[in-house]
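Regression test attached.
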Amino acid sequence: MTFKSRILNADEVRRALTRIAHEVIEKNKGTQRLCFVGIHTRGISLAKRLVELVERFEGQRVPMGILDITLYRDDLTEIGLQPRVRETRIPFDLNGKAVVLVDDVLYTGRTARAALDALIDQGRPSRIYLAVLVDRGHRELPIRADFVGKNLPTSRSEVVKVKTLEDDGEDAVELWEVGET
Amino acid sequence: MKGEILFKNATLVDARGEHGTADVLVGEGRILSLSGGEAQRVVEAKGRCLSPGFFDLHAHLREPGQEVKEDLRSGLEAAARGGYTDLVSMPNTTPVVDRAEAVRALREKAAQIDRARLHPAAALTQGQEGQVLCEARLLREAGAVLLTDDGRTNEDAGVLALGLRYAASWGLPVAVHAEDAGLRRGGVMHEGEVSWRLGLPGNPAYAESARIARDLEVVRYVWEALETRPQGRSLLHFQHLSTRRGLELVRQAKREGLPISAEVTPHHLTLTDAHLEGLDPLYKVAPPLRTWADVEALVEGLLEGSLDCVATDHAPHTEDEKSLDLLRAPFGIPSLEVAWPLLYTELVQKRGFPLSVLVARFTDGPRRILGLPPIHLEEGAEASLVLWDPSQRRTVDPKGFASKARYSPWAGWGLSGWPLLTLVEGRVVFEGLG
Amino acid sequence: MSGATFPKHLLDFQEWERAQLESLLETAQMMQEVLARPVKKVPALTGFTVATVFFEPSTRTRISFELAARRMSADVVSFTSSASSTAKGETYRDTLRTLDQMGIDAYILRTDAAGVPHQAHRWLQKPVINAGDGWRAHPTQALLDAFTLREKLGSLEGKKIAIVGDILHSRVARSNAELLPRLGAQVVACGPATLLPGKLPGASLTTKLREALEEADAVMALRLQKERMDKGLLPSLPEYIAGYQITEARLAWAKPEAPLLHPGPMNRDVEIEGTLADSPRSLVERQVANGQAVRMAVLYHVLVGKR
């Protein structure tokens, strides 16, 4: 893979998340029944930031869970390498909650589809939103995000890498090209 | 001089040694000349070996009653392909061969089939039940060459003593499957590190040596009481030795001059209990495959003559039977068609075992146990011969076996020494040339 | 997406490396979480069909496997036969080949004879999970034992585990002797002299119960089959109890708090003193509960990521 360009730097990531946090509060009309669920791996880091931002703006800490969608993937009958099953922990009752699912990149929509199924198996939220840092297009399912940090038109041969301080040592969004170096 | 077949430039190997090349003329069932002559058929045998036909003292041909596993035709055909001109069939058929008529019927049928010659063994006790002796005199008259309850073990030492004494009086040797049933218990493989790890019931080496020790005392007892002691004959023959300890007992008894003999199988000379690691019932045989130390000892015993002969214990079963699990699958494997190339390759080629000694263990050795004269490659000798190829390598492919049991633990092994032509009294019974 | 490859079969632990076993136990941990949910089911194995083929009856193990498969959304068919019908000429091979014509993706096999899972894998070229073969192996039992032990003790590194009972005829003992040392534990197998093998790789052997139990971090008692007495391997039941029953007093030889395990079904007051079996020291019920999670994890690892 070859590096092509940096789409967002640390400040831009921070500003995008701040905007999403405001939009969430606005759309939900406050923090009532609000909660965040981050999808492994970087969705978890991003959800944590959003929880903190919401707390800073509203003075209210909302609950957060983490979700692994491996067991809900629709390609397990045919994949080659075996994905590791990671922790799912939703330490609160989902019933009647307004859940913001958080992921780093929205692409085909398959992860979001799996996450919706996984979430619904755990309870009956009154509402589920989807928040992503980058929407890169190429949807294969009728799925859209409610909150988007950056819309980024890409080609299928490109890879969008979201880096977080927690997972990668810095906050950034980069565009890479698959193939020859 | 005119003959039927002329082997040109054949390398002669018999129990006495290797004798260089000669043009061997065969006719009227005999070797007419070692210096050529005219013949209807000339076989170019340069680089190939001519030996006396092999003699198998221990094969299960399953007829009558178990023809689904093997029958006389397939078994004797397999033998001929393996270079055997003679074969002793075991009597543990259905019904057991324990009467003169059964022996005669087998011989007549085998004569019509005209492949390897059949020498039936008959049971020592009626129905092989270990109680009432069989009619040794009538059986011998009908052509039985050996008495044995093989397939079972002779648990009652008293019956064995009576049987030895009675059989000896009619000039018949007795062969035993020497394993102590109590020590053997339900063992399906050698008891040792592999069986303990795999969780399979083990058959200890001492099941064999304990029984051999007992039987040697029985032989001593009978031998001392015999009014006439036939010299140079075996009173008791130990089948398929598998252990170093069993061999030591046999060796020592022979040194003391006890009239005993012993055989070893191709599988006990080439395979070990480690082959059971893959949990394949193909390797389930009785007595079981032992350790490498046992294999080494048995090769040594074969060399020095403590083991008189190689006997196949060719024991075919259907593929379905051998596909049962390790507890239920029957003991035994087919080996008539590979025994010679296997041991020629593994012992002579790989380990430097003397060729003429191996030939002796396939020819003179078994014949002596039955009191038959040796066949050596000289003018006037009976033309029961095998021509074999010491150099061309071929992979064992059980799918091509004449035996009905078309599987083999040696499948895929590259072997040399394959028989090309087998003659019984000058008649071609296996044609593998061209 | 990070990924890894795993052996296609679980016949025994010969081809499983420590890292693979560790991640399998980790996956089982994740499956525990699934089992704690209101909806105890995930779609992971949708589209897969697994067959439980039991030639030896064992309702407990079969139910545990079938529930595990169903909770992973696999279709499950079950075939139960007895050794007697096999003796009537119905061979394992015929049965398995017949089933194989019906589009089975994996087989869960239980037999009274060692080696049948290995044979099945040669005949079928499909994933085979050994649910117990004769005296040889019972790998999912050992995995659930290891899982239960880790839940209680943390890492098994350097831990001494005593296994007590009929070691010679025990597939549970063999599989644990194979697995626990791979996870860092030290295994001591103890039983009457007539019920011990000559050697058992992975375990040291002793006939002295006190020696086995002293300093032990956990004790596992095995089921004693009554037929051992019939075959003359044991003089009597009271004789066994006198020498090898795990009692409160004897368990005191082990480390304080050392838990007690049993693969079940238990002969109460034979292998274990009845009151002790019901005490908090006993993890027997926990083992059963963990069995399902472990088997879900095994199914996941054996079936997913084959290409």
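Expected vs. actual: identical. The radius of gyration of chain B is 21 Å.
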